[in-house]
Amino acid sequence: MDLTERKLKILQAVIADFVRTAEPVGSRTISKNYSLGSPATIRNEMADLEELGYLTHPHTSSGRVPSEKAYRLYVNDLMQKRELSQEQKDAIASELYQNVNELDNLIERAAHVLSEITNLTAFALSPGKEQDKLRYINLLPMDDYSVLLMLVSDSGKVSNTVVRLKAPASEETLRILAKNMTYNYSGKTLSEALKLDIIENFRNDAEAMSMFENAIAPSFIRTLEDMLNVNLYMDGLTNIFALPEYNDIEKARTFFEMINRKADITQKLISRGDGVEITIGRENQDADLSECSVITATYHVDGRLVGKLGVIGPTRMKYDEVTSVVEYLTDNISKAFMLTEGDDDDR
Amino acid sequence: MDLTERKLKILQAVIADFVRTAEPVGSRTISKNYSLGSPATIRNEMADLEELGYLTHPHTSSGRVPSEKAYRLYVNDLMQKRELSQEQKDAIASELYQNVNELDNLIERAAHVLSEITNLTAFALSPGKEQDKLRYINLLPMDDYSVLLMLVSDSGKVSNTVVRLKAPASEETLRILAKNMTYNYSGKTLSEALKLDIIENFRNDAEAMSMFENAIAPSFIRTLEDMLNVNLYMDGLTNIFALPEYNDIEKARTFFEMINRKADITQKLISRGDGVEITIGRENQDADLSECSVITATYHVDGRLVGKLGVIGPTRMKYDEVTSVVEYLTDNISKAFMLTEGDDDDR
DNA sequence: GTTAGCACTCTTCTTGTTTGAGTGCTAATC
DNA sequence: GATTAGCACTCAAACAAGAAGAGTGCTAAC
């Protein structure tokens, strides 16, 4: 089912025009702007392309619109990587190469600049921390009845919980507890720590044991889970208002409601493949995404922490440009993280 | 300019009907549903009310719509506090009385339940930390060239930054630095700490001094600022799609764009009065808010930490109900915070 | 002071018409 | 045999005219 040279060119022209204008593309337009033959010839070719499933017809007397199959062909075989413009690179640099307190902060900025450049809705997932190891555990007295439980992992992720006690704890007890917890958990990965039988280790100290069991342990688990949580950042939600696809208030509404189910989105993102992945229209399974395309890529930090970022938009999108930007961004996140930290020295 | 009893009743009826239906209210409707006289009488009264500025006329042959002045009168003099329904109380309880790691978490939930109950866009501002005192300062070695700077305030707020060093630091140096910082800053409020001349204190230790000046100090300031930041939580953004006021895509767009300028919103909220504050339409100053009403209230935690929460919606809103809910919520946040923490013991 | 009646206004809905972009097909042309 | 000109046909979108309906303001009667 190989397409002739001309058919490919016409298909590409239709895609290019439609992506730009969002209007069905007629034979006249193609004939005028690309020298591929007369309108009649183009029409014949288009009819063939339609029969092959690459183009569709909103109604008898309108121009052609690329099908998902056409976009897929374009993405797989036709499109070429684009070099980013200097402005785009600058925008990314000035957004990423700032001082950040936390890696999450950087990820958030990445989503921001991504949405600005692509004019689409962007999102980024903070790195999964499964492989993080506990590095520091402390119990800090706040007042008589409350203690701050603090955990730090070796990637610098900090999580903490205020624990309420039924009875005041002596500083000594807290010190022992913290020391004991450090001894038992430090160096373990977060997921390992969650699995250990945490009570076992305090058999020989009744007071510590009781406090640990009743108050600390549940908070400890909760804090570990909190550290494991990945965060989803989104930006550019209002960009869709500029798209004719979402001129219909109902469409806009469904989009926002879909994008608001953060847990779903997170899940969907996590389960996507590594590297750049493009899913078009109904390839996305989800009915709410059946008219959208999603482009994601995986970034690495330290060669160990791994997260995802990408955009979501109508199937009519600049696949070449967006793919290039997403790829460029993921390549630069790790670098940016190292550098921005280094910057502190120069302040 | 005192209104007669009947005029007041008619005005109230118009408001009630318009709030419910979003359609201009005609004299027939009022006459039918409230026994206040014949349509003709009502019409005469309405004409008077219009002259007095309480009602307006979209066009000659349509019913009346309450003006901002009418809503203001209603809010000030006519409306009565409503007792929350049991379901509403339950919804709030089940949302607030959960385990939370941080106060911010609770605030976020408050915004969530507020938007669910009112069907409007809700927001909540985490407490200002100006009065928080530094309780704990530590420097934790991560690897040879990076150190985790960690600050804890007495309200349990934790903030941290990974600091990159140019030269490796001995544990001893870090210990001394941390001790020194603790000595100098512990017990100071965050704002005080920001103002102190932080270099002065290390005159007598060249190595510590140099490291502090070059690497730690800037991060220290940044971390303090980070702790002082208030967070803005929003929920129920998509609720506006259900409102006829936002059937127009342009209106929806402006709303979202306005709500997306988080810094502006935060600023605007902070500058609002204490207690319950209601601003109607153009009372909000901001042009983007000229067709909205905003209801906010202040909550307290520990009698010291203070934040705000509220809703934003069209001027046509259930002022009585929303006010009651907002008030009820702020009253319960402090209680909930204490209780949820106590719950840990029972786990 | 209140109300019935009626002419009038203005929006909204429906229906019909026009316009224009674009197709498919046939026949002529290269 | 592929390409192109020509033409009839289709359909959406834009526009206009008319009908329906809700509601008003005013006058005159109660």
In short:
Chain A is α+β, with helices and mostly antiparallel strands and 347 residues long. Chain A contains 12 helices and 10 strands.
Structure write-up:
Two copies of one chain form a homodimer. The first copy, chain A, is an alpha+beta fold. In chain A, 48% of the residues lie in helices and 18% in strands. The first copy, chain A, contains twelve helices and ten strands. In chain A, the strands form three sheets. A five-stranded antiparallel β-sheet of chain A has the order 7-3-10-9-8, with helices on both faces. In chain A, strands 4-5-6 form a three-stranded antiparallel β-sheet, covered by helices on one side. In chain A, β4 and β5 form a beta hairpin. In chain A, α6 packs antiparallel against α12. The longest helix of chain A has 25 residues. The relative contact order of chain A is 0.14. The C terminus of chain A is likely disordered. Chains A and B meet through β4, β5, β6, α9 and α10 of A and β4, β5, β6, α9 and α10 of B. The structure holds a DNA duplex (30 and 30 nucleotides).
Determine the number of helices of chain A (DSSP H or I, runs of at least 4 residues): 12
Strand order, sheet with most strands of chain A = 7-3-10-9-8
* Greatest chain-chain contact: A-B, 46 and 47 residues
**Average residue pLDDT of chain A:** 89
H-E string of chain A: HHHEEHHHEEEEHHHEHHEEEH
Q: Which stretches of chain A are poorly predicted, pLDDT < 50 over at least 5 residues?
A: 341-347
Question: What's the number of extended β-strand segments of chain A?
Answer: 10
Class derived from helix and strand content of chain A: alpha+beta
- Please compute the radius of gyration of chain A using only Cα atoms: 27 Å
| Biggest sheet descriptor of chain A | 5 strands, antiparallel
Subunit arrangement of the protein = homodimer
Name the overall outline of chain A. elongated
Which percent bin holds the helix content of chain A? 40-55%
CA-to-CA gap between the ends of chain A? 62 Å
The percent range for strand residues of chain A is: 15-25%
